[in-house]
Structure formats: C-alpha cells, structure tokens
Design brief:
alpha/beta, Udp-n-acetylmuramoylalanyl-d-glutamate--2,6- Diaminopimelate Ligase, Chain: A, domain 1, UDP-N-acetylmuramoyl-L-alanine:D-glutamate ligase, Protein-Tyrosine Phosphatase, Chain A, 3 domains, eleven-stranded mixed β-sheet, six-stranded mixed β-sheet, 23 strands, 35% helix, 23% strand, globular
Length: 448
C-alpha cells in the first residue's frame, strides 16, 4: 500500500505516489525521473511515460490524485478551524493554533506562511494548497496524534474546490475588502467565493463572524452553523484598555488580556481567537498566558528593530491592509516613513489606491519594487504614483536601495513601515525568484 502522495519531488520517499501537474505556472513533468529515484512507486501522469514503475495515465491528474488521497488519509475525528477574509487570516490562524496546541492538543497549520503537518514544517507555496495536498497534511497530522487543524482558506482555494469534502468544525470570517479582482473579476464574485466556506458548515458547526464588517450579514445568512459574532458590539466584544508601541491590553467580555501585537485590527484577530477558544472550552487562564507570550507572525507587523527609531515589516499589499497598518503606526511615530511597491501581473486597479493611502498617512513615501514578475517596475511605480496628488515621494526601484535610503534618513522617534512582501524570502523578477527578505535586509544594514 502506498503511504503518501505529493506533486513536490522533495517530498517523495520510498513507496510514495508522485503526481504530475502541468499548469500555467507549475509543471513538474521534468521531476518524474528524480521522483522515481527517490522511491516513488506510482506516478499519476497526463501522458504515458517511459518509466520503470507503475503509472496511471489520467486526463485530470488532480482529480485522480484527490481520489487516491481520500483512500490514503483519514482525519474525520480532527477538529478543523477554517479562516477566511481579506486581511487577518494569517495572524488569526497563528493565534488560534498557539492557543489550541498549548491548551488542548497537537494542532496542524495550513496557511500563507507555513504548512505544519506535525512531522515537518514547510515554507508555504500557496495559502490553500491542492486538495490532495491538504488531505496529505491533515492525514499525516492525524497519524502524528493531531487533534486539531487550523487552515487559512483563500477565495481562490474555495473557488477551485480545494477544500471540498473537508468537514470544518469552525469557520471564521475576518473582513472583506478589495483583493484578487484580477482573478475574480468583481467584488460580487470575490464575496461569493468567500461565502462558500460558510455554506459548507453543517448545523453542528460554528460560524465566528466579524459583526462590524459591512458584509457580515451576507455571511450570517449564508450558513446553517451556529453563529457567534465578535467585534466592538458582537457577542464577544472588545475594548482597548491600553495601546502602546509595546502592544495591546484588551477587555473581552470582562476578561483582561495582554498581547504584544499592535493595532485595532489585531484586537479583532485576538477577539475572534478568544471566541474560538470558548467553543473548545479552553480556560481563560491558558488563553491569557498564550496571548501574553505571543510574539506575532513573521512579516505581519513584525518588529524588526526598536531603538531611537522603529522598523516594522508587514505583508500589507492592498489599500485596506495598508490603511490599517499605517493608521496604527501613525499614532506612535514622530515621522512615518513608508516603503512599498505593488505586485506585477496582478490587480492594477488597486495601485493608485495604494498611493492614495500612503499619502493620507505617511510623512515620507518611498516607492519601490515588490514582485514585479513580468512587468516593468517603473511602470508599476507610475501606476501607484497616480494616486499621490500633493506629497513629494521618492522612487527607488531597487528594493534594497529603497530600504537602505529609508534607514539612512530615520531619526529619533520615527517609524519605518516596509510593506508588501512580509514573510516572503524572495523577489520574483521575470520568472525567477531571487533571495530577498525585507527583515533580513534591515538587520544586515543596521548590523543587528
């Protein structure tokens, strides 16, 4: 009997199944020989190959792989939490994972930053991976004694059916603002994709919904699950008691929690995680301890340096996410310096809106490259600059030079926000991913 299945050749071990996928941006046919050398005993392929192991020729290798994954992996008794929304998914998933793993049992994680199947932690390649690969992560986690799993569920993943057949115990909705319109085409289509998670929930499940979001009613009406609301006026309501450069002190339903995270939006993330903790009957004292020790997520308002001035790196790459980050950092800064670009070959309409947001909050704006992909970085900067009407801005396409320039001009009390790439450790230019990590660049320049 085969043990595991994967389309990533580095995963393959003796007795595994290797899946060939030939898509627009992924083609691993060239890896078949190496997969066989590593021990693959079955290859699922779109065309007959000259190989020495068993093969299944399929016109839809993903579907065939899904069928095999359903046979290989069992995780019916795991409690699975799915989180969807435009912003906040990653931080919320890490907080919930930390609470569950510290207070209740082993917890797997599938998301934008990592995939953790409790046997190994891999850098994520997609927020919501292929359906058969999700089965692999959950199945391997269950074999390792996992009781829970926390999963970021993307709109693209939902639209493409990658979580079909997975029984979620809890669905969490964070918020909905403009994103991925290059894929979905309209906000209506984007909303409908997100709603699919809540339509999947059965009557024994729970829907944890941000009641302060304008779209909350759509999510509440879409589900058969037991609805729990959170927000400033939800069933789980929060008040910010203290907010400093050191973090937050929150009152949630009369209970006080401290956390080193910054920003009102993180108050929402923390409150949703607390609501989930109550579903699983986790004691407040354990939640309190976890939150106090929680140091955040790489690339999510990550504090890279604090001294005479402060440097934060964040994944914000939409106008709404930028506004949330810059609005919070604004209150703690002498001057707010922002360094950002926009991804190439993605939603062009958001670019001037990002420039407009930067002008609204920042004192100094430095436009640079993000992942230009196959676009001209200068053209992307032009698009962003159209949203900047009055303030002076600098344009430095080389991202390392832009970061170095920002650090060189910082003075006592300033805050530097480097936005767009967050946890990513590469920069994608003309089909090649070059090593690049914003936080590491800062540390090298400052020698810290």
């Amino acid at each position: 009997m085969y043990r595991d299945i994967s389309h990533f050749v580095e995963d393959i071990k003796e007795g595994d199944i290797f899946v060939v996928i030939r898509g627009r941006s992924f083609d691993n046919l060239k890896d078949v020989e190496e997969a066989v050398r590593r021990g693959a005993k079955l290859v699922i392929t779109p065309e007959r190959l000259d190989i020495r192991v068993e093969q299944i020729v399929s016109g839809n290798t993903r579907k065939t792989a899904d069928e095999w994954a359903e046979r290989l992996y069992k995780f019916d008794d795991m409690e699975i939490v799915g989180i969807t929304g435009t912003n906040g998914k990653t931080t919320t998933s890490f907080i919930i994972r930390e609470i569950l793993s510290s207070c209740a049992g082993k917890t797997a994680l599938i998301g934008t930053v990592i995939w953790d199947d409790l046997t190994e932690v891999k850098t994520s390649k997609l927020t919501t991976p292929e359906r058969f690969y999700i089965f692999r992560i959950l199945g391997r986690a269950r074999r390792a004694g996992g009781k829970f799993a926390v999963m970021e569920v993307s709109s693209v993943g939902l639209d493409q059916g990658r979580v079909d057949g997975i029984r979620f115990k809890v669905g969490v909705f964070t918020n909905l603002t403009r994103d991925h319109l290059d894929y979905h085409g309209s906000m209506e289509n984007y909303l409908n994709a997100k709603l699919k998670l809540f339509k999947m929930l059965d009557g024994d499940a729970f829907a944890v919904i941000n009641s302060d979001d304008p779209y909350s009613g759509e999510f509440i009406r879409s589900t058969r699950a037991k609805v729990i609301t959170y927000g400033k006026n939800g069933e789980f309501s929060f008040r910010i008691l203290e907010h400093s450069i050191g973090g937050l002190v929150l009152d949630i339903n009369g209970e006080v929690f401290e956390c080193g995270l910054l920003g009102e939006y993180n108050a929402y993330n923390i409150t949703s995680a607390y609501a989930v903790s109550k579903i699983f009957n986790i004691p407040d004292e354990c939640v309190r301890k976890v939150l106090k020790n929680f140091r955040g997520v790489k690339g999510r308002l990550e504090r890279v340096f604090s001294g005479d001035f402060h440097v934060f790196v964040d994944y914000a790459h939409t106008p709404d996410a930028m506004e949330k980050v810059l609005k919070e950092l604004r209150r703690f800064s002498g001057r707010l310096i922002v360094v950002f670009g926009a991804g190439g070959n993605r939603d062009e309409g958001k670019r001037p809106l990002m420039g407009e947001t930067a002008e609204k909050f920042a004192d100094i704006i430095i436009l640079t490259s993000d992942n230009p992909r196959f676009e001209d970085p200068e053209r992307i900067i032009d698009d962003i600059a159209r949203g900047i009407k009055e303030k002076k801005y600098y344009r430095i396409p080389d991202r390392k030079e832009a970061i170095s320039f920002a650090l060189s001009m910082a003075r006592k009390g300033d805050v530097i926000a480097i936005l767009g790439k967050g946890h990513e450790n590469y920069q994608e230019i003309k089909g090649v991913k070059y090593p690049f990590d914003d936080a590491e660049v800062v540390r090298r320049i400052l020698n810290v």
